[in-house]
Amino acid sequence: MPVINVDSDCFYDKGTFLPESGPGGNVFIANYHKLGIMIDISDKDIVRRYAKASGRIYLKKETIETISNGKVRKGDVFTSAKIAGMEGAKEAWNRLPYCHQIPLEGVDVYIELLEDSVKASCSVIAQWKTGVEMDALSGVTSALLTVWDMVKYIEKDDTGNYPETKISDVIVETKVKGHA
Amino acid sequence: MPVINVDSDCFYDKGTFLPESGPGGNVFIANYHKLGIMIDISDKDIVRRYAKASGRIYLKKETIETISNGKVRKGDVFTSAKIAGMEGAKEAWNRLPYCHQIPLEGVDVYIELLEDSVKASCSVIAQWKTGVEMDALSGVTSALLTVWDMVKYIEKDDTGNYPETKISDVIVETKVKGHA
Amino acid sequence: MPVINVDSDCFYDKGTFLPESGPGGNVFIANYHKLGIMIDISDKDIVRRYAKASGRIYLKKETIETISNGKVRKGDVFTSAKIAGMEGAKEAWNRLPYCHQIPLEGVDVYIELLEDSVKASCSVIAQWKTGVEMDALSGVTSALLTVWDMVKYIEKDDTGNYPETKISDVIVETKVKGHA
Amino acid sequence: MPVINVDSDCFYDKGTFLPESGPGGNVFIANYHKLGIMIDISDKDIVRRYAKASGRIYLKKETIETISNGKVRKGDVFTSAKIAGMEGAKEAWNRLPYCHQIPLEGVDVYIELLEDSVKASCSVIAQWKTGVEMDALSGVTSALLTVWDMVKYIEKDDTGNYPETKISDVIVETKVKGHA
Amino acid sequence: MPVINVDSDCFYDKGTFLPESGPGGNVFIANYHKLGIMIDISDKDIVRRYAKASGRIYLKKETIETISNGKVRKGDVFTSAKIAGMEGAKEAWNRLPYCHQIPLEGVDVYIELLEDSVKASCSVIAQWKTGVEMDALSGVTSALLTVWDMVKYIEKDDTGNYPETKISDVIVETKVKGHA
Amino acid sequence: MPVINVDSDCFYDKGTFLPESGPGGNVFIANYHKLGIMIDISDKDIVRRYAKASGRIYLKKETIETISNGKVRKGDVFTSAKIAGMEGAKEAWNRLPYCHQIPLEGVDVYIELLEDSVKASCSVIAQWKTGVEMDALSGVTSALLTVWDMVKYIEKDDTGNYPETKISDVIVETKVKGHA
Q: Which range marks the domain in which residue A28 is found?
């Protein structure tokens, strides 16, 4: 069995937070172990945080038409995507292992119907110790996946595959720390 | 395809939170899109919030007797309903799309056995930027549904239906902002 | 310390599922312990199950008007309540401690705008070993609470209280076992 | 208040599942209401379903190097993304309002480190009544967002923004119904 | 950047489930990648599965007395632990990354008050393609942690630490495949 | 039906939080009802809280070897256990009925491979009104159960049982209130 001592140049060196592994302990500690953390933000200041992310789902012309005419069989695509997006933002801490539980103070999801795609944008705001861009991104992907789920029956080919459907351009548009 | 510009009298007009849709963008934006939000509370003060909600489930006399005698087959109705109620309060942000994630600081669920019904009350307290009445209401409905679930076998008729069972009178009894 | 032997007329007597408590064990076992269970349905047949539940939220005339005109500030009440209702049905096993995890095969939520109230109905269907009425009821309460949450700002009085708002008449309308 | 009767050419016309709204009921029913559903799959056959989705996150060269060298501060990117992806697949029913609860029978997440991006692929398999492509897509987006979250500190510019980071090319690569 | 071809002796070799990485692709694939999976159980038979797990929490005599007398401040320890245990069993798929979503068909939690400890046992039953021991173990740990949480105020020393409290002996007592 | 008045020496006596049960109400109130609560912490100060918990899973020598050699079939045990542990800490409020929703500000999980066991430690930090030891304990049990789940195939005997596998020694190692 490999025996490796904990080395001393640990990335994470805040007093009480260090492993109490005494010197010479003959334990094997994988070297990623001491790096893998949900980072300690406890000493950071509470500041106003804002982030806006967006992304697109590329769809057939026929699908864009059907959405535009409000004829999608499962229901209203705009409000459905908006709600899935708000929930996606609020659930980021649960979906992404390294994300902190930030009590979000405002979430908005915009859905825009373009010529060849639907664009979803998600704005998130919170007074907290770390940024909210992952929350905004989680909102965007949930909104876009909900659009996909609702128009599956139009996008599918005869084999049940999706040769033209694609989610792309998922980016953080703006991130602001402190009052703008 | 309908082409509608974003109009300028947007309900939601806080600076950084607005969509950065430039002038003349030829995108279709459904008119509810710009109204549908988890409202921004980031600038509100942190204040003590208290809410108490309650509701009733109307049951057969035989069911009330069985609960009163502690003979319900699935177990203790009072504690079960209380726990489901506490969890319901803590989960309101997840169940209700527009609710904020409020870290609740106290939850209590009272179960009272009346002549013809069980009354569940849920009190919630938190120092936060928005009220906790939805959390209290979510607690009450979870507590009452748990009672229903536990006494199904007594309430059912021969067809498996519930001609007499009913949840009613779910109200917010008290809501207080600031110290009483 | 009270010492009570496990008595033998245990409610739950399926072979492998019984506690292996030998005779004369001098342990205290609270008498509800041996009754409190998520009931074993493993030997029941898989049958088509259908349930429809409904309930109402009583609102001000002004609120009904605002919903009817599509002017509610947080967005589209109908689709929002529908989605919260579908999610409430799918989450029943998680919200109600004694509910089984039934993979639901169809959920529909109907929202009707009446003179003095909004009525939400939730239909659930599944081929499974136990009924789906709790899932339908969980859907109804989530839909109604979402309506409440969205119209809070119209229903509130000057003190932030809700003298007229009330959820009532939550019932199981129909339950069917096997094909109708 | 608008008064609209339920029309009869309802999209959803399975017997027991229809709204029991009698003729001439003077209720307002929004026209999307009768279309908005988690579709009834109860009569479909249980068949082997397989889907593989993939997508990419475009990153700086420096970030690709750091991942390749196993030096990312929060820990092991490959296994972290894999686990978030598996969880994302299992949680699709909860994240996407119209998705069914499919008990997945196999999930795999592949992470490939390319010159300019990380590619995540997610394969899902289940014997069930509906396809698993949304589950695979949900897995892919969770895996890619986890990569983003872990390398934020390298991708950020001085203002905390991400001028080069982008998730793109999220597609369904293969979908198979029945044994291949 | 390291460049490694996918080798061919992949652990996981079911046709459709393999990565479609063509020969000679110059991608880096970490060697655990092709091993890390939620294992494919889709071809396994549906069989009756039963597992019973148990464990103990060691407590002060004073705490055992307080539980025995039903005087614990937060409420009824037995029912609380039982419910947390049932929920823990139903949530195993969500808590443990490699666990399948097994729709459990029966869960029971037994709580026994011993001289120096509380013993929690959790029995789980399901007709499914894989065993339910992780579900039973998840139930046991949730039940025991709930006991700890409820008696914290008695177990704590002056510094807020727990010199005597300990969860131990968490084992799978019985696992049965097929009818016993 | 038993009729019991609420007595006056209620454990929980903060003004607004008391049940508004008037004198002489002829309702049955189970005596645990007025004790069973998620305790009100709203008036407590926000203080730096740190807790470290740990526990062990005892395994076969063969299993320890396989982990040490990185040959476990489901993938990387160290990172998998770490992530399950971080998620377990963040989910404590949801798993344990009486736990508050504490937004954790730092979580670390250490995995050590010993001669006869794997030791998991979880450190949690937060500035909040109540301690974080339950969160740390929830992290430890999730990490240890994940190890068990991953090495099941090595630990099992011919009957599918686990004669040697055991989780023990789950304790709170350190708890600190305020800066150390």
A: 3-35
